[in-house]
Every structure is written in C-alpha cells, then in structure tokens.
C-alpha cells in the first residue's frame, strides 16, 4: 500500500480517469477494479481485491468526511488515510446513498428485460458485460423464497451483493431487482424493504387450477356459489362474447367463461390487493409481474385473455405476465416439445399481450431454451422478460470442473447423495442413471458433463446441499475468487448466446 499512499497527495485533485490510470497498476497484493474507481469530495472510493476477498477501499488526505461514513479497518500513514471496508449491509447502504445508480430501479418502461438469477452474489459482472452489448436491461438481483432458503441468503444480501458488483463495473444504465415467485404479502414486504422494485406474484395458491379438470356440473355448482354481482358481471362480459385481439378473434363460450371465473376470480382479487399494496409502498416505482405458469396444464388463449381483462377491470397495472406455455420448460436444458405447435400457440399469447395493454410476455425457466428463442423474440417484437436462474450457477460449476477437478468430484458426489431430497422441489424428467460414474471419468472429461442434460439438471437442482456443505462451501468460493475473470468470461459468452438467439438488437 505504500506506493498508493505515496501517490495520493499528487492525484487526489485529478479527474477520475487520471486517477484510474495512475492508481490502477501500483500494487500487486491489492488490485483495484478500474471502472469502480470514483472520486467523491475528498476521497477516492474503489472496489478492490486481494488473494482472499473483495472489499471497498477508501483513500483520502483527510480523516473526516466520506471516509467516516463507511465501516471498516483504518490503515495508512504519512498523512494519507485509508480504510479497508467489508462488503456488508452498512457499506452497501452508504454506497447507494453516494452513488444512486448502484440501487435497483423500476424497469416498467424498459422494453426488453432479462432476469439474471445470481444465487452466489458473484455473477453480475458477467451479466453486465453481456447486456452492455445489447439493447436490453438486466434484473441483476432476482431470488425466490426457495432459493433464499437453499442458499442461506436474505433479500438484503441479494440486493447488497448486486449493488457492490454494479459499483465494481461502474454500470450506470439501470438495473432491476425481483422478489421472485412470492405468494404472500408478508414475503412481498420483506422484498420491498430490501429495496426490490419488482415483485413476481405467484398466484398458484389462490387460483383454483384443479378446476381446469372439473366436470361441467362441478363447474356449474362452483360458479353459482360466487357472489351474485360477480356472476352478473361475468355473464354480461364474457358469455358467448367474441373479442378482436389484433389479427385474431377469440370467442369465450359460456362453459369456458364459467370455468375461468371459478379458476381465477379469487386470484384476480388478490392481485388487485397486492397492486394496491405496492402503490402504497412505492407509488409508481414498481414492476408487478403476474405469474400463472406454476400449473400442470398450458394456459389456454381464452384463459389468458380472461385473466388480462379481469386485471384491467380491477385497474391493476402490471408490467409482465407469465403464462404456462405448451411443452416443457425444464431447468437448465433446452425446450422439450413440438416447435411448430409451440410457435402456433405462442403467437396467440404474444398477440393478446400486444392488444391488451402491451405488457411484456414473461418466459419463466428461460435458461438455455435456445430452440424457441428466435420465435419468442420475433413474435413479441422483443417486448419480453426472460427469467433465468440456475444457468449462472451451472456456469460456475463448469468453471470448477475445468479449473479444480478434485473439488468438482466432491460436489458431484454431494449432488448424487442429496438428489432424492431435492428432486421433490423441481419438475425434471431426466434419467439420472445415464450420468457416468464420476470415478470412470478423466479430469479432462468433467467439463463435458455440463453439456449433458442429465448432469446439468443434477447439478442445477442440488445447489442448496452443495452450498450448505461446510467442507465444500469455502473451497467453492475460494476457487471462484481465484478464477473470477474466467467465470465472467463464461457468463458473458453464455448470456450473449441467449440474447443473440432472441434477436436482441446489438448496440
């Protein structure tokens, strides 16, 4: 640090670019992230790293002012003050106060958004490197309650990690944060209090999806038990009505209208309650996504239209909606199903979205669905939200397989040992018996497992037990710290593949 301290008096008054060029290369034990080097009042603030960890480094010729806002270990001598500050909640809050562009914002006016689920709090620089090349906006902080439980994180951790990494990259184009698949207002409040502007409302527990398979007589009984004013409105609005939806015509007959009312009216009332709650908490600065994809059957066009019209009737402002599409959108692998039939049905969903509010069609479990990306991008005119999660974790696993094969073998064994307990949480159909015995593979064969559907899904769904293992966890994070740049490169390449196949416009 002595070289840095020696130079500070001569560069503290220079512009940021000169400081970056001067201070960036001066120290071998501690390296600064060049784009993070900023000057604020009397201090230089930068993200830095040594061989063990990352931290914020503050350097100033004064011990007063901004340097006092951050918590950390004060070091330095000869009239130069420095503070090595951990990446904790207090310092994240100060960072957002000083540099507002490090805080997530509403993306309701952004046309194309991509959810970059980062289960590790490490991946954002790779995501940013990819999205900077295209006309898209990232949702860098995105986690479900299930993911928080399995990783041992909190929404505050997720938002803070994103803020530090945005600062590390000097990324000022705006990003989102998504409390994913939330079902209760109490959980929504936790996400909101952490600063998350986007809420993905999972309606699976309030909509009556089972009624999709009920007999006509059962539907009749349930429909007649609804409040009389609701029955009257449904009859007037939907019974044997034909709707012109762009170039399409969709008719809702009487049985379909009754079935939709039984399945969705209660859920729409809850969506309206959540919408009012979000307005009270954040005014207009929120993004509400409606998720109806957590069902066993695809969303029929008539049902999609009914849901949207009911949301609009309740004056619910929603940014995106996630139907359940035909075929299989399984975790971490490509689309399974008939591509022609997918295109035919997806065209209807896209047309409904354009004609009924021009909201974004949201694609859940969107990681690695390369076969259908061109259709999705073209038919939505890129007005879409693509939600990914496990694919960034799998790229980290790929790095471990390439760079630390001994550790990968331990992770792989852990995954197999915990498969039975976690497979209940995810819908996958891979035959895990096809995965070759790990002891039969040479080290150079291990990365190839990340090209095999069965191995990808095995490692995808077992991230929780792997990250909770006290013997694996420190070795895993140490390995990714050592190979950080390589991880970013893998992520950039992988996400550029997603975006280019979608048809995103390159800047």
What does this structure look like?
The chain has 507 residues and is an alpha/beta fold. The chain folds into three domains: 2-88, no CATH class; 99-175 and 390-507, no CATH class; 203-388, no CATH class. 45% of the residues lie in helices and 16% in strands. It is built from 20 helices and 16 strands. The protein has helices spanning 2-11, 16-23, 89-98, 124-131, 145-151, 155-169, 185-193, 216-224, 228-238, 254-282, 301-313, 339-355, 373-380, 390-403, 405-417, 419-422, 453-461, 463-468, 473-482, 484-502; strands at residues 31-32, 38-40, 43-49, 54-60, 73-75, 81-85, 112-116, 137-144, 176-182, 198-202, 241-245, 248-252, 287-291, 320-322, 360-363, 384-388. The strands form three sheets. Strands 7-8-9-10-13-14-15-16 form an eight-stranded parallel barrel, surrounded by eight helices. Strand 7, helix 4 and strand 8 (137-144) form a beta-alpha-beta unit. Helix 14 (390-403) crosses helix 20. The longest helix is centred in the middle third of the chain and has 29 residues, at 254-282. It is globular, with a radius of gyration of 25 Å. The two termini are 39 Å apart. The model has no long low-confidence stretch (mean pLDDT 95).
């Amino acid at each position: 640090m002595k070289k840095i301290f020696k130079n500070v008096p001569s560069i503290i008054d220079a512009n940021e670019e000169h400081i970056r060029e001067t201070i960036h290369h001066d120290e071998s034990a501690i390296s600064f992230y060049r784009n993070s080097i900023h000057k604020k009042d009397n201090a230089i603030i930068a993200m830095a790293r040594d061989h063990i960890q990352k931290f914020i480094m503050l350097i100033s010729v004064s011990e007063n002012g901004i340097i006092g806002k951050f918590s950390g270990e004060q070091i330095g001598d000869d009239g130069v003050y420095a503070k090595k500050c951990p990446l904790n909640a207090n310092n994240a809050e100060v960072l957002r106060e000083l540099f507002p562009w490090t805080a997530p914002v509403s993306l309701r006016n952004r046309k194309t958004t991509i959810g970059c689920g980062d289960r590790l709090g490490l991946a954002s620089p790779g995501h940013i490197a990819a999205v900077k090349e295209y006309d898209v906006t990232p949702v860098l902080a995105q986690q479900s309650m299930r993911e928080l439980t399995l990783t041992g994180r909190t929404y505050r951790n997720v938002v803070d990690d994103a803020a530090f990494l945005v600062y590390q990259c000097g990324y000022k184009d705006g990003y989102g944060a998504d409390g994913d698949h939330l079902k209760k207002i109490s959980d929504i409040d936790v996400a909101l209090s952490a600063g998350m502007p986007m809420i993905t409302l999972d309606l699976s527990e309030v909509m009556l999806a089972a009624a999709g398979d009920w007999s006509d007589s059962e539907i009749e009984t349930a429909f007649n038990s609804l409040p009389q004013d609701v029955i009257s409105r449904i009859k007037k609005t939907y019974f044997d009505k034909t709707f012109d939806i762009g170039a399409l015509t969709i008719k809702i007959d009487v049985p379909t209208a009754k079935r939709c009312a039984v399945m969705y009216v209660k859920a729409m009332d809850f969506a309206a309650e959540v919408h009012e709650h979000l307005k009270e908490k954040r005014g207009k600065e929120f993004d509400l996504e409606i998720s109806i994809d957590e069902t066993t059957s695809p969303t029929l066009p008539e049902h999609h239209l009914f849901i949207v019209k009911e949301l609009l009737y309740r004056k619910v402002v929603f940014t995106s909606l996630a139907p359940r599409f035909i075929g299989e959108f399984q975790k971490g692998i490509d689309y399974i199903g008939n591509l022609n039939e997918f295109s035919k049905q997806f065209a209807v969903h896209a047309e409904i979205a354009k004609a009924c509010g021009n909201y974004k069609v949201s694609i859940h479990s969107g990681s690695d669905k390369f076969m259908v990306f061109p259709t999705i991008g073209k038919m939505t005119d890129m007005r879409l939200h693509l939600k990914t999660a496990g694919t960034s974790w799998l790229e980290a696993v790929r790095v471990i397989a390439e760079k630390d094969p001994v550790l990968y073998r331990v992770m792989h064994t852990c995954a197999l040992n915990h498969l039975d307990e976690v497979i209940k949480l995810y819908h996958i159909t891979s035959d895990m018996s096809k995965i070759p015995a790990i002891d039969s593979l040479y080290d150079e064969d291990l990365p190839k497992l990340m090209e095999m559907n069965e191995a990808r899904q095995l490692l995808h769904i077992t991230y929780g037990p792997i990250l909770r293992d006290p013997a694996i966890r420190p070795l895993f994070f140490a390995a990714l710290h050592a190979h950080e740049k390589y991880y970013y490169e893998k992520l950039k390449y992988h996400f550029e593949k997603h975006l280019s196949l979608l048809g995103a416009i390159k800047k």
